[in-house]
């Protein structure tokens, strides 16, 4: 069963899953070689898991003609070769995958620990975050939770993290900076994240990590994966410099452990 949505060429489908129940999805063409599969317009753990399940299904099935897929907060954009697949064929493949994806097990989330030096020159906006909270209280609140990586975007390896304490929610800067250093930890609205490369940016910067989030020459260029959990661990400036030296020598090992996504950042 399908209904025409509001947008041109955008269809809302109610897909009956083999395991019972149903899921509402929208299909929207992206040029002549892409299709956006939307699972809703609300950031939530349920939709995030549906996004991951579809990506996992596509990874396992490896359909000829599909080039890549990109997960976001509420959707998956799939790119394909138009000389091998017509749009309606691509949509049919995706519908079949969605029907079966409930049975697709997701790997356990990793907890990736990120040493972070808060405040000072590394956190020029920390006083603007948290209203009447002290710097120590901001650091304690920001570093006590595990944040869910909903998506990577804007810059390679930049993680959009859900689960920020509402007391820390702060609007973006009125005027973005021309340069934000790599490793900068920031807050924008109800999100927190880490700048993976030096780039202009408008997030409120509260600290910096000495880790290299993105390196195109590494076997796995980015250290985060969608579905990871991130735990910030406060360090001193001396510890920052020590870790940075180890990172620059290529001898630092990212600290990871198994986590529980159910208890991480849920709805935004």
The CATH class of the largest domain is: Mainly Beta
Q: Which CATH architecture of the largest domain is right?
A: Beta Barrel
CATH third-level topology of the largest domain: Cyclophilin
User: What is the mean pLDDT?
Assistant: 89
Distance between the termini: 31 Å
How does the helix and strand content classify structurally? Answer: alpha+beta
> Could you state the order of secondary-structure elements as H and E?
EEEEHEEHEHEEEEEEEEHE
Please tell me how large the radius of gyration is: 20 Å
How are the strands of the biggest sheet laid out side by side?
7-14-11-12-9-8-15
Number of separate helices: 4
Tell me the fraction of residues in β-strands, as a range.
25-35%
Q: What does this protein structure show overall?
A:
The structure is a single chain. With about 270 residues, the chain is α+β, with helices and mostly antiparallel strands. It folds into 2 domains: about 1-105, Gyrase A, domain 2; about 110-265, Cyclophilin-like (Cyclophilin). It contains 4 helices and 16 strands. The strands form 3 sheets. A 7-stranded mixed β-barrel has the order 7-14-11-12-9-8-15. A 6-stranded antiparallel beta sheet has the order 1-2-3-4-6-5, with helices on one face. Strands 10-13 form a two-stranded antiparallel ribbon. The radius of gyration is 20 Å and the shape is elongated.
């Amino acid at each position: 069963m399908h209904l025409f949505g509001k947008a041109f060429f955008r269809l809302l489908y109610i897909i009956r899953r083999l395991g019972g129940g149903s899921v509402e999805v929208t299909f929207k063409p992206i040029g002549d070689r892409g299709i956006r599969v939307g699972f809703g317009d609300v950031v939530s753990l349920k939709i995030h898991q549906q996004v991951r399940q579809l990506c996992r299904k596509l990874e396992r099935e490896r359909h000829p003609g599909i080039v890549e897929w990109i997960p976001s907060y509420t959707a998956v954009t799939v790119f394909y070769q138009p000389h091998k697949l017509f749009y309606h064929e691509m949509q049919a493949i995706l519908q079949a995958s969605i029907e079966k994806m409930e049975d697709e097990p997701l790997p356990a989330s990793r907890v990736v620990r990120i040493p972070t030096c808060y405040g000072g020159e590394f956190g020029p906006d920390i006083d603007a975050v948290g209203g009447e909270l002290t710097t120590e209280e901001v650091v304690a609140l920001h570093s006590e939770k595990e944040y869910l990586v909903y998506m990577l975007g804007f810059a390679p390896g930049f993680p959009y993290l859900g689960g920020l304490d509402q007391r820390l929610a702060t609007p973006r800067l009125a005027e973005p900076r021309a340069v934000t250093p790599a490793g900068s930890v920031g807050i924008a609205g109800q999100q927190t994240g880490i700048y993976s490369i030096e780039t202009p940016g408008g997030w409120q910067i509260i600290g910096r990590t000495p880790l290299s989030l993105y390196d195109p020459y590494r076997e796995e260029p980015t250290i985060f994966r969608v579905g990871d959990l991130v735990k910030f661990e406060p360090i001193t400036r001396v510890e920052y410099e020590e870790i940075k030296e180890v990172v620059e020598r290529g001898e630092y090992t990212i600290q990871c452990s198994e986590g529980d996504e159910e208890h991480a950042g849920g709805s935004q």
